[in-house]
């Protein structure tokens, strides 16, 4: 659902990274391996832009030929689910804090893609919005 496909464009100085589903994403690496690592950080930064702009985060589309799929950490996927559930209800972070009875800083961190949150806290927040987190394991 949120395994975003990225594409690479090589030039004389390195490798640029782009994502069809997240057009705001802009990243660069010295080589493909470095570009993939940088793309992970760029995805987190791009997701933060969606939060700042109060926009729902799009689902990933199927990869096209030549694209590389980036598998996001479970905590990032949980944050996306929480943010999108909030957007469905037209909720602000302050509304979430009141609902959960937590401090503003705690609520901010739940949807801050540059901060690691505990899965239990994300599960509790999702449950308060009538959602349940489901985790599956697949072959790598």
General description of the model:
By secondary structure, the chain is an alpha+beta fold. It has 2 domains: 4-70, Double Stranded RNA Binding Domain (2-Layer Sandwich); 74-128. Helices cover 44% and strands 14% of the residues. The protein contains 5 helices and 4 strands. The protein has helices at 32-52, 74-88, 93-100, 104-110, 119-128, and strands at residues 4-11, 14-18, 27-29, 68-70. The protein has a 4-stranded antiparallel beta sheet with strand order 3-2-1-4, covered by helices on one side. Helix 2 (74-88) runs parallel beside helix 5. The longest helix has 21 residues, at 32-52. The mean pLDDT is 94.
Write the SSE topology.
Elements: E1 4-11, E2 14-18, E3 27-29, H1 32-52, E4 68-70, H2 74-88, H3 93-100, H4 104-110, H5 119-128
Antiparallel strand pairs: 1-2, 1-4, 2-3
Inertia-based shape: elongated
Provide the β-strand percentage band.
Answer: 5-15%
- Let me know the largest β-sheet: 4 strands, antiparallel
| N/C terminus separation | 16 Å
Mean pLDDT: 94
Structural class: alpha+beta
> Over the alpha carbons, how many angstroms does the gyration radius reach?
16 Å
Total individual domains: 2
Can you count the helices? 5
In the CATH hierarchy, the architecture of the largest domain is 2-Layer Sandwich
Q: Would you state the CATH class of the largest domain? A: Alpha Beta
Kindly state the number of beta strands: 4
CATH topology of the largest domain: Double Stranded RNA Binding Domain
Helix content: 40-55%
- Give the SSE string: EEEHEHHHH
Low-confidence stretches: none
**Strand order across the largest sheet:** 3-2-1-4
């Amino acid at each position: 659902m949120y395994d975003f496909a990225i594409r690479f464009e090589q030039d004389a100085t390195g490798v640029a990274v782009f994502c069809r589903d997240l057009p705001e994403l802009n990243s660069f690496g010295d080589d493909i391996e470095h570009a993939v690592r940088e793309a992970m950080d760029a995805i987190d930064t791009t997701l933060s832009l969606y939060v700042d702009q109060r926009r729902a985060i799009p689902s990933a589309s199927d990869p096209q030929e030549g694209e590389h799929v980036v598998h996001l950490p479970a905590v990032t996927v949980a944050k996306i689910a929480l943010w999108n559930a909030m957007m469905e209800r037209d909720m602000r972070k302050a509304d979430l804090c009141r609902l959960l009875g937590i401090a503003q800083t705690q609520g901010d961190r739940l949807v801050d893609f540059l901060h690691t949150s505990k899965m239990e806290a994300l599960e509790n927040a999702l449950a308060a919005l009538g959602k349940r987190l489901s985790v599956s394991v697949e072959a790598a």
